[in-house]
Write a structure and sequence with these properties.
The active site is at residue 157. The chain is of the alpha/beta class. It has helices at 59-73, 89-94, 110-119, 121-124, 140-146, 171-180, 198-211, 258-263, 269-274, and strands at 5-7, 17-19, 22-28, 33-39, 43-48, 51-55, 79-84, 102-107, 133-137, 151-157, 181-193, 214-220, 230-236. It has 9 helices and 13 strands. α2 links the parallel β7 (79-84) and β8. α5 packs across α6 (171-180) and α6 packs across α7 (198-211).
Length: 275
């Protein structure tokens, strides 16, 4: 492998490689190893601790689906909580909704926000300057277990359950989320590529089932999250997300549509068997 190649190490015996045309930034932050580089196919790419996090070319698929499925299913999402999401893509999509009055974002690593504003400006598109945002640099688990605020939608845009992101897949985190959801509120979270990370699906389903009255998964295929479709988890105490028709659609999107919204809840048999 060329010394200018980047090999993802999420899986122990298989991965994907990127040619690094130019390394823009590399450092060990307070919490994790971070690298940003240019690639001819995917534009700018960011990886944390050996795992690809986002690319300029396909980020919209993941960010739109993790955001608009719960947001469009809620009749009036006014207060939104984002856990993680330091690249700003989820924040950008949340702020497209005119009902939103306040967004709280809790990101553990301030360096990710700072560097993504510099190297991935199209991810946030100025969203970090929006007066509706309250940015909190801190631990997401502690925040949901200590806050007295209530939120209509909670979105967990975390890394995989290793390193700093591991705590965002625990029962303590889910219990804190339940406590800070308003009546009729919905929680969603990324949950890995189910074909390769089936244990994550089963574990999340069990833990969410112990905490929330309703829970399930929906799917999306993101090219640089390799290995098949991603499963995105959802949970609520009162809303059965697959049965809710998305409300009026007036958003500027590149992937999400009302038809995609309805179809994404159809799970392949192998995912259903994992559950």
């Amino acid at each position: 492998m060329s010394e200018l190649s980047y090999l993802e190490t999420l899986h122990p015996s298989w991965g994907q490689a990127f040619i690094m045309d130019e390394v823009l930034f590399e450092s060990k932050t307070e919490h994790q190893h971070l690298i940003i580089f240019n690639n001819a196919q995917w534009g700018r790419v960011m990886a944390l601790d050996g795992v690809i996090q986002t690319t300029e070319r396909d980020e919209f698929i993941y960010h739109e689906m993790l955001t608009h499925v719960p947001m469009m299913a809620h009749p009036k999402p006014q207060r939104v909580l984002i856990i993680g999401g330091g690249d700003g893509g989820i924040l950008r999509e949340v702020l497209k909704h005119s009902d939103v009055e306040q967004v709280t974002q809790v990101e553990i690593d301030e360096a990710v926000v700072t560097l993504c504003r510099e190297y991935f400006p199209n991810h946030s598109q100025g969203a970090y300057d929006d007066p509706r945002l309250n940015l909190v640099i801190g631990d997401g688990v502690d925040f949901v277990n200590q806050t007295q605020q209530k939120f209509d939608v909670v979105i967990s845009d975390s890394t995989d359950p290793v390193g700093p992101g591991e705590v965002l897949f625990t029962s303590r985190f889910y219990q804190g989320v339940q406590a800070c959801l308003a009546e009729g509120g919905v929680f969603v979270a990324q949950n890995g590529v189910s074909f390769l990370q089936g244990d994550e699906v089963r574990t999340s389903a069990q833990r969410l089932g112990l905490t929330f009255a309703k829970r399930g998964f929906y799917t999306v295929a993101v090219p640089t999250y390799v290995g098949g479709i991603m499963t995105l988890a959802w949970a609520s105490d009162s809303v059965d997300l697959p049965s809710v028709m998305p409300r009026g659609f007036e958003l500027a999107t590149r992937y999400y549509t009302p038809a995609v919204h309805q179809a994404c809840f159809a799970l392949p048999r192998y995912v259903a068997e994992q559950l």
